[in-house]
């Protein structure tokens, strides 16, 4: 590890996106090869996500039968739709599913009112997604520079975020008020997991995120900075990088007793490589056999959502 010193939000390094590419490439590489997380400021995302997140609350308060119209199909090729509370269990050994609802959208849902209602697929959501995509592409480029790839845009070229062939999605994660009578001992708002894909960017309106500290071997608070967007590596990119970049496990706790009646909302951008992108270890080590992004994600979605192969 270098002697680079960070400001930190809890356990997570804070990176100012107004710095030069040269500075940022060093800081992202340091953060994402050690902690696996960073918190970026001055990204242009926070205000857009805050406004959009607040507006989506009304969807999650609709009657159950109304929300069911938009249920996520049980198919790998459908990276969109609503998931009811209890549908997702990210930690396979958890005593109960995650205490949350989720609505995934992607390029296929845009403008199709049978797949997503206007409050979810809105002008605000598209502006936000464009900013997420912009910053995700920039970070992938900066990592390519830091990793001294022959073509620093190699990872960027494998992520055609604006095309329907790319399965990346933008997801609203709604954590409802907690009804203690429905809780199972040990249940969390979001169970321990690492993300599936390449790169995740996350807005949240409240604290609660914890990350696994590699140094301490235990969960620590990620911290919370107004204006900060979390960035973390997914399992696909860890594999693709030959384990140079680190996909860190994380979770979202239930709030303290006095805050159980408070809702929480996050908006995440889950960046994935294009379905047909061939993932061969970037460092040339051949540590893992080549695999397409589609093949890799099918395995992960099936394990988590019971998705058909």
Q: Beta-strand level of the residues, as a percent range?
A: 15-25%
Low-confidence stretches: 1-7
Put simply, the count of helices is 7
Q: How would you describe the shape?
A: globular
Strand runs, count: 15
Mean pLDDT over the residues: 91
SSE pattern: EEHEHHEEHHEEEEEEHEEEEH
Residue share in helix = 25-40%
Q: Assign the structural class, choosing from mainly alpha, mainly beta, alpha/beta, alpha+beta, or little secondary structure.
A: alpha+beta
Query: What is the end-to-end distance?
Result: 41 Å
Radius of gyration: 18 Å
Strand order of the largest sheet: 1-2-3-11-8-13-6-5-4
User: How does the major sheet shape up?
Assistant: 9 strands, mixed
What does it look like?
It is a single chain. The chain has helices spanning 21-34, 46-60, 64-68, 123-146, 154-157, 235-240, 293-305; strands spanning 8-9, 12-16, 37-41, 81-83, 101-105, 169-175, 190-193, 199-204, 209-213, 218-221, 229-233, 250-252, 264-271, 278-279, 291-292. The protein is of the alpha+beta class and 309 residues long. Strands 1-2-3-11-8-13-6-5-4 form a nine-stranded mixed sheet. It has a four-stranded antiparallel sheet with strand order 7-12-9-10, with no helix packed on it. It has a two-stranded antiparallel ribbon with strand order 14-15. Strand 9 (209-213) and strand 10 form a beta hairpin. It is globular.
